[in-house]
Specification:
single chain; mainly alpha; 3 helices; elongated
Length: 108
């Protein structure tokens, strides 16, 4: 019981509005409620931003590590002629006789 009371006091001290006690709340109202809460807590918003950035970077590193055998870094100079894969026909059964590449194209 003490934990609930402590949490209640913490909410009141932070001047956060208590969620309405309606049975159903529309998603729009719920988003608006949480937006108002976040506007009142800039330090929490900064922490959430840092966590999101960290999660995004970890996701990128994980993707690169997982697919490192397939990722190739092509650094073409301006004016180089290249062929571009025509991925439109990749899943097409009758695409066997159609052009597999566009080109040559000039790198700009």
């Amino acid at each position: 019981m003490k934990l609930k009371e402590k949490k209640r006091k913490e909410i009141l001290n932070n001047n956060l509005a208590v969620l309405p006690s309606h049975d159903t709340i529309s998603p729009t109202d719920l988003i608006a409620y949480h937006t108002r809460q976040l506007q009142k807590c800039p330090e929490d918003l900064a922490e959430a931003k840092q966590r999101l950035l960290k999660a995004c970077l970890e996701s990128v590193y994980h993707f690169e590590e997982t697919h490192k055998n397939w990722i190739k870094n092509f650094n073409f100079e301006k004016g180089t002629l290249v062929l571009v894969k025509n991925s439109h026909h990749d899943n097409d059964i009758s695409g066997k006789t159609k052009p597999q590449y566009f080109g040559p194209m000039v790198v700009v």
